[in-house]
Design goal:
The protein has 531 residues and is an alpha/beta fold. The chain contains 15 helices and seven strands. It has three domains: 41-251, P-loop containing nucleotide triphosphate hydrolases (Rossmann fold), CATH 3.40.50.300; 276-381 and 473-502, no CATH class; 388-457. The chain is 60% helix and 7% strand.
């Protein structure tokens, strides 16, 4: 399916704007890529109307362009002179019924001279006399370049003395493939056959297989003047079919230029494989960074664990900078790791900006993630200090601390009661001092022993806090890793979408370029085009 050039340009503009917004293209590069030339001869007229063929005389200073258009008009409508005159204005010569409705703003009216005629045989052509592009006046060249996209056929006028002018050839080589060309070797009354042959050879080198060349003179003394042949040739070309062919060819060339820009965008965007590899590179890099961070946090965590142990009760419901593990050193290591992603992206042919923008949130959240994870883990560790067996053993000892003294007291009480009963029944002495001492020692031992065990086996709050800090740090570093991988995945998906949209536009351009009609062979029009 063939797409209209303007539709393809609109899609390309939307894609470039999206790529800039997402950071894949810089603003400066986008400005260059957005420079689409949508000017055409048809843009001067209403789209639905049949329009005339726009023909322009172009050449260097003193080759007789103005004299040719004056000869065509039958009167002096363009400035001409003898001593190498310089044309500084654009002269339009057309039928008075033709109205140019959409003259672009960059084509100043004060530098355009309009001459009209009533000859219906020339109604289908607008003739233009262009300024001398090789003049030292810079505005002349600018006018030529601004008018060129609005021209169908360029009549390139040279003289026997100036057909090899360097400036003329540079412009011809730059614009040769964009227009249909007729060549006029003017002032032929002073020319030689060898010059005509050499001129034809030069045009052949410029890409014209069989250029159409007319020899003309502004005097009536030469018999083989071909000016009337030039007129009849252009009159034969001035029809809707030829104009349509030229417009289609112009669109075809513009689509090819657009394709070049799109392929340039594709290179600037980078490959999807490179974007995918960044996740693997990050995994390796983060393992090294997290190891360095854990090693660097060893001493600060000991200090924070001691602080937690001493102020555990005072820290409930409060936050303090004393317990903040993340410092400027850790932030610097984190920044280095994230900056390395942008460096790797740039080395892989990807724009680093999307990664920098997307990772900004992770960069600022790292401190909060570590703080939250370590504080939560410390609170959990202080809530249940020690390991599971230790906590079970201490619970058992606490039960013994209550039960053993109670059992000892009950046993002593029982012995006192039995001893008293037996002393009344017999003449034996009642218990005695030894029993009192021994029973007191028994009760004391049954209480002191669990108390001593609880004191000695009580879990260290500092060690518990340190264990919680280590656990929280590992959890926090894992969360940062997950956050970064999520960001990289989102950026990669954005890159995939951007690349997919670009490939679709390229395919549409290729389809349009492939379906563009070719010019007929062995016809005057085909000879006027660069092969």
């Amino acid at each position: 399916m063939a797409y209209d050039y303007s539709d393809l340009v609109d899609k390309t503009k939307q894609w470039i704007e999206s790529a800039v917004a997402n950071g894949w293209l810089s603003q400066s590069i986008a400005q260059k890529l957005l420079d689409f030339d949508q000017r055409s001869p048809s843009s001067l007229f209403n789209a639905l109307e049949s329009r005339p063929l726009i023909v322009a005389f172009m050449g260097g200073t003193g080759v007789g362009k103005s004299s040719l258009i004056n000869r065509l008009a039958g009167s002096a409508i363009a400035k001409a002179g003898v001593e190498r005159p310089t044309s500084k204005e654009v002269t339009l010569f057309h039928h008075r019924d033709i109205v140019i409705k959409h003259l672009p703003a960059q084509l100043p009216l004060e530098q355009i001279k309009i001459a009209q005629h009533d000859d219906d045989s020339k109604k289908s052509i607008i003739w233009i006399d262009m300024p001398d592009f090789d003049s030292t006046v810079q505005s002349n060249k600018q006018q030529v370049l601004q008018w060129l996209p609005h021209i169908d056929v360029l009549i390139y006028v040279v003289s026997p003395e100036r057909y090899r002018d360097e400036k003329a050839w540079r412009l011809l080589l730059a614009e040769g493939g964009k227009h249909a060309w007729l060549f006029v070797l003017n002032q032929w009354d002073r020319g030689q056959i060898e010059q005509l042959a050499d001129f034809r050879q030069q045009l052949h080198k410029a890409g014209f297989a069989d250029p159409v060349i007319f020899t003309t003179s502004c005097t009536d003394t030469i018999a083989n003047d071909e000016f009337t042949v030039l007129e009849s040739t252009l009159s034969a070309l001035a029809n809707d079919h030829t104009i349509n062919q030229l417009e289609q060819r112009g669109n075809h060339l513009k689509i090819q230029e657009l394709l070049k820009k799109l392929h340039e965008c594709q290179q600037l965007l980078g490959s999807g494989q490179s974007a995918k590899q960044l996740e693997q590179i990050w995994n390796t890099q983060w393992q090294q960074t997290s190891t360095v961070l854990q090693q660097g946090f060893a001493w600060p965590m000991q200090k924070i664990a001691s602080y937690y142990a001493e102020h555990a009760a005072d820290l409930i419901g409060k936050t303090t900078t004393e317990t903040n593990l993340w410092d400027s050193w850790a932030q610097a290591r984190m920044d280095d790791a994230l900056d390395e992603i942008a460096v790797n992206a740039s080395q892989s042919g990807l724009s680093p900006l999307p990664y920098k923008n997307a990772l900004t949130a992770v960069r600022t959240k790292a401190s909060k993630i570590i703080q939250n994870q370590t504080e939560l883990a410390v609170r959990q560790a202080l809530l249940k200090p020690g390991h599971a067996f230790q906590r079970f053993f201490l619970k058992f000892v606490r039960v013994c601390e209550f039960i053993l003294p109670l059992v000892a007291i009950c046993w002593v009480g029982y012995q006192v009661f039995i001893g008293y009963y037996r002393s009344n029944m017999t003449s034996s002495n009642y218990l005695g001092v030894d029993f009192a001492i021994h029973s007191s020692l028994l009760i004391a031992l049954t209480w002191l022993l669990p108390f001593f065990i609880l004191k000695k086996f009580k879990p260290s709050l500092e060690k518990s806090a340190l264990r919680g800090l280590n656990k929280g740090l590992a959890s926090g570093l894992s969360s940062i890793d997950t956050e970064v991988l999520q960001v990289l995945h989102e950026v990669e998906q954005n890159h995939v979408n951007q690349h997919s949209q670009l490939v679709d536009i390229i395919k549409q351009c290729q389809n349009s370029a492939d379906t563009s009609p070719t010019m007929p062979q062995n016809q005057t029009l085909s000879r006027m085009l660069v092969n």
